[in-house]
Specification:
By secondary structure, the protein is an all-alpha fold. The protein has 18 helices and no strands. About 55% of the residues are buried. Keywords: Repeat, TPR repeat.
């Protein structure tokens, strides 16, 4: 399987059950060729409208904290230019912001960090050795690599170097520098992200990197619970559970280890329960509520465990939030998930109706058209099946070519097995019993 196909499937699979989507955590732009809605012009922001704008704001703040809290404080400690001052570091700051906004579309995730003490407080730590200019450069170089495009030539080698840089920095901050728990959290999150992104660049073929990332997330949670008790009641704490869950999904995919889906679902549940209990954004104060994207993530994990009715409940709740926030495109994606869960649960007629609604609400989205083509074909409605396939191939931004690979549809897009079987029959133009032979046009 091509790397690009896996990466795109991973993102769509994060929101749409299709394993690891162009992570459609939140699509940033309208798909190519999609017509604008009449009477209004709008741009879809990542993640989404009111609820998602709050999440974007928190994610951007987290990215700044991740790069600035360690780099800025340590630079100040050695008399250097703190992050955010000076042309080069301002560029780095902008790149971190861009990375935070683009992270969902690359499956990267955004590292949440809890601000640590001031430079003066850090310098006053008992027996602490002040960081050198080399220490500062090491940390800044590592975070700058994370902010760069992971699809660029040589990205994997650069990310492996960044992982090594983070490892050296962790040894320094957990050793002679006696870094604060906040510093150690940020460095561990950075290394975990480097490891996840390395696995992504290989098309998910290095699950050992995801396993190592889980170990980093474990340590981050331990630090937050033991040494940073104030962080437990903030936005940062549940976000680590979400990131660990995503890493477990990568292990499940790479190792074909079903137990990892259960672990991912447990982590998503922990984060969701914390948000329901009123977790606040540690930087801006207001309660964020449940992130509807994470409801979709948990729904995907539950679907992999065969718990389609539970998954359906998550997708429906997410759809309501998106609709309430006026995020029509992400609502359509979540509605498509509802359709797949209904097919998985054996509620076929309801699944068809839900997919028809999703296709009507967002005709540029490919999944509903493909699912309807398969379902119509299996029911003997050959003409409508062909019409839906033609729409998938010619009227969507993504097109239909990848859906000819049934392994990709099953393991990346995560269609239910019955729908995959129906799609296989359509692609082979193998008619169900009693249907007439159509004039097929395989594209």
């Amino acid at each position: 399987m091509a790397q690009a196909s896996w990466a795109q499937g991973r993102v769509i699979g994060l929101l749409i059950p299709g394993r690891p989507m162009e992570p459609m955590l939140c699509p940033a732009t309208r798909p190519p060729g999609r017509p604008q809605r009449r009477g209004r012009q709008r741009r879809v922001l990542p993640p989404s409208a009111r609820c998602a704008r709050r999440w974007t704001k928190a994610a951007l703040a987290a990215a700044l904290a991740l790069g600035a809290a360690v780099g800025g404080r340590t630079a100040a400690a050695v008399g250097g230019d703190p992050l955010g001052q000076g042309p080069a570091l301002r560029r780095l700051r902008r790149s971190l912001l861009a990375a935070a906004a683009a992270a969902p579309a690359r499956g990267m995730g955004v590292a949440s960090a809890t601000p640590g003490p001031s430079p003066q407080e850090a310098a006053a730590a008992a027996g602490a050795v002040e960081p050198t200019a080399d220490d500062v450069a090491l940390v800044q170089r590592a975070f700058a690599t994370l902010a760069a495009d992971p699809a660029r030539p040589g990205a994997r080698e650069a990310l492996e170097a960044a992982e090594a840089d983070f490892t050296r920095a962790i040894a320094r901050w957990e050793g002679p520098l006696r870094g604060t728990p906040g510093d150690r959290v940020q460095l561990r999150l950075g290394r975990a992200q480097a490891r996840i992104t390395i696995n992504d660049t290989t098309g998910g073929k290095m699950p050992e990197k995801a396993e190592a990332a889980v170990e980093d997330f474990d340590e981050v949670l331990r630090l937050m619970e033991a040494d940073m008790s104030g962080a437990v009641g903030t936005f940062d704490y549940p976000s680590v559970y979400v990131r660990r869950a995503l890493a477990k999904e990568e292990i499940a995919y790479g190792r074909k280890d079903r137990s990892q889906w259960a672990g991912a679902a447990e982590d998503y549940t922990r984060a969701i329960d914390l948000w329901r209990d009123g977790i606040k954004d540690s930087r801006t104060g207001p309660q964020l509520g449940v992130n509807p994207m994470v409801l979709n993530f948990r729904g995907n994990a539950l679907s992999q465990l065969g718990r389609f009715e539970d998954a359906l409940a998550d997708y429906q709740e997410a759809t309501k939030i998106f609709v309430k926030d006026g995020e029509w495109q992400t609502a359509a994606l979540s509605r498509s998930n509802e359709g797949l869960a209904l097919f998985g649960a054996g509620r076929r007629s309801e699944g068809v109706a839900r997919m028809e609604l999703a296709a009507l609400k967002d005709p540029a989205m490919v999944d509903p058209h493909v699912a309807l083509a398969a379902a119509y074909w299996a029911s003997g409605d050959v003409g409508r099946a062909e019409e839906q396939w033609q729409a998938a191939c010619e009227k969507t931004g993504e097109g239909c070519s990848r859906y000819k690979d049934l392994d990709w549809v099953k393991n990346i897009r995560r269609f239910p097995s019955t729908l995959v079987s129906d799609l296989g029959g359509f692609l082979r133009r193998q008619l169900p019993t009693g249907a007439d032979q159509p004039g097929s046009r395989l594209r």
